[in-house]
């Protein structure tokens, strides 16, 4: 197994923390929020997709990808993330694009540096760790929101 295949398997397994939650989400749950928090379940699903697309484009080089990361731009939940089918399609689109961009990396790419305003200078390998932890972090929030939100 080469480095790209190993990193891809690692990312795919880590993302199950998010993707397994999605199997049971109902549309009426998308408006749920935890007490004293700002983000709904729908916002969290959209946000994970937005950031995965940003990583595909800005970190892993999917130059033909156009990204409109609405949750990153607005930085707040405006209540628009209530269509379950649209959110599921969007997160699948993000998944497939990030997966394809990871698969395109060659061995030497993992040591190359990328610079972003969000997390500074990192190797692509370190950046992969960043997207893994980002998705897991928000998947945890989503799980708690779906279980305890109102």
Give a description of the structure.
The chain is mainly alpha-helical. It has one domain (3-148): Four Helix Bundle (Hemerythrin (Met), subunit A) (Up-down Bundle), CATH 1.20.120.450. It has five helices and two strands; from the N terminus they run ααααββα. The protein has helices at residues 3-22, 41-59, 70-74, 84-103, 124-148; strands at residues 113-116, 120-123. A two-stranded antiparallel sheet has the order 1-2. Helix 2 packs parallel to helix 4. The longest helix has 25 residues, at 124-148. The radius of gyration is 15 Å and the shape is globular. The N and C termini lie far apart (46 Å). The model has no long low-confidence stretch (mean pLDDT 95).
Sheet with the most strands, sense and barrel status: 2 strands, antiparallel
- The overall pLDDT, averaged over residues, is 95
* Total individual domains: 1
Residue windows where pLDDT falls under 50 for at least 5 positions: none
Our count of helices gives 5
**Which percent range describes the beta-strand content?**
5-15%
Q: Output the strand order for the largest sheet.
A: 1-2
Which H/E pattern describes the elements?
HHHHEEH
Number of strands: 2
Q: What is the second-level CATH architecture?
A: Up-down Bundle
CATH C-level = Mainly Alpha
How would you name the CATH homologous superfamily?
dinb family like domain
Task: Please estimate the helix content.
Answer: 55-70%
Distance between the termini: 46 Å
Predict the CATH topology.
Four Helix Bundle (Hemerythrin (Met), subunit A)
For the CA atoms, what is the radius of gyration? 15 Å
What global shape is seen?
globular
Structural class: mainly alpha
Oligomer: single chain
């Amino acid at each position: 197994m080469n480095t790209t295949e190993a990193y891809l398997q690692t990312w795919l397994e880590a993302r199950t923390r998010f993707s397994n939650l999605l199997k049971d989400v109902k549309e009426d749950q998308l408006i749920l929020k935890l007490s004293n928090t700002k983000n709904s379940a729908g916002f969290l699903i959209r946000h994970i997709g937005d950031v995965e697309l940003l990583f595909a484009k800005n970190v892993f080089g999917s130059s033909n990808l156009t990204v409109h990361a609405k949750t990153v731009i607005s930085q707040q939940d405006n209540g628009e993330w209530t269509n379950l089918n649209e959110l599921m399609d969007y997160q699948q689109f993000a998944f497939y694009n990030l997966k394809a961009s990871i698969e395109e990396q060659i061995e030497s790419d993992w040591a190359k540096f990328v610079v972003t305003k969000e997390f500074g200078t990192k190797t692509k390998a370190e950046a992969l760790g960043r997207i893994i932890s980002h998705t897991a972090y928000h998947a945890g929030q989503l799980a708690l929101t779906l279980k305890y939100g109102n």
